[in-house]
């Protein structure tokens, strides 16, 4: 199981209705993307991280490890805005106004990232997907996502087993052996995944699959008080940002 899924199943917010967490994280996401970077994105970051490390009790080390690749991507993209290409003086030159755009984009993107991770660390995907059909998402799309989600774990487990076997036979002892082992791992993983997908399709057809997977879903009551409290957080962030702009 991936670290983010394990954290979601251990989260104290797991028994909270996904609509409540969707209102909270979705509202904060809208604030991060639509409000001014200062102080909108900053307040959104404070709210999302405060809820994640406070009531949601997300492990900071796991949170940082999951967020690191996305942050590197954001900073790499923002760094390209610091230079201009195709100028008259030089092909690549420093853009004096680029730092403002870089800060704006990195601020919005990082704030949006915290909102999405807060939702992911508190809501197991297996409990979210069946509820998407109830709000109008096409069943075929939900089932494809659910099957891919389950196959990801099977594929990762297969890759881990193959890699462990190769390492036990000194398959990664040298650079040449490493290249050969990685190529063999990729080819074997593709063939096994394709074969497993075919067997799963035949199994579904033998069980009378008609285009819809019916699964048991634990009913979680939707409490309007919790929904109102969740919506109050992004509304407070938006109100504080607008008040700051008016006072200035």
Automatic annotation (TrEMBL):
One biological process GO term for this chain? cobalt ion transport
The source's domain of life comes to Bacteria
Localized where?
A: Cell membrane
Main subcellular location: membrane
Q: Where are the transmembrane segments?
A: 66-85
Q: How does it sit in the membrane?
A: Multi-pass membrane protein
Keywords on record: Cell membrane, Membrane, Transmembrane, Transmembrane helix
Q: Which GO terms describe its cellular component?
A: ATP-binding cassette (ABC) transporter complex
Which PANTHER family does this chain map to?
COBALT TRANSPORT PROTEIN CBIQ
Q: What's the protein name?
A: Cobalt/nickel transport system permease protein
């Amino acid at each position: 199981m991936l670290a983010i899924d394990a954290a979601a199943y251990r989260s104290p917010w797991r028994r909270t209705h996904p609509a409540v967490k969707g209102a909270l994280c979705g509202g904060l996401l809208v604030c991060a993307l639509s409000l001014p970077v200062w102080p909108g994105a900053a307040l959104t970051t404070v709210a999302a991280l405060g809820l994640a490390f406070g009531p949601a009790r997300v492990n900071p080390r796991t949170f940082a490890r999951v967020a690191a690749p996305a942050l590197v991507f954001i900073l790499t993209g923002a760094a390209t805005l610091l230079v201009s290409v195709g100028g008259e003086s030089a092909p690549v030159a420093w853009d004096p106004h680029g730092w403002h755009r870089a800060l704006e984009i990195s601020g919005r993107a990082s704030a949006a990232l915290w909102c999405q991770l807060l939702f992911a660390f508190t809501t197991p995907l297996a409990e979210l997907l069946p509820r998407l059909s109830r709000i109008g998402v096409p069943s075929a799309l939900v089932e494809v996502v659910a099957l891919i989600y389950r196959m990801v774990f099977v594929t990762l487990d297969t890759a881990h087993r193959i890699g462990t076997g190769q390492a036990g036979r000194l398959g990664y002892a040298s650079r040449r052996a490493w290249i050969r082992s990685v190529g063999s791992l990729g080819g074997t993983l593709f063939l096994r995944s394709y074969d497993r997908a075919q067997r799963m399709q035949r199994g579904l057809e033998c069980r009378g699959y008609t285009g819809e997977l019916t699964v048991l879903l634990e009913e979680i009551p939707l409490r309007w008080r919790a929904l109102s409290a969740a919506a109050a957080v992004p509304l407070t962030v938006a109100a504080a940002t607008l008040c700051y702009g008016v006072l200035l």
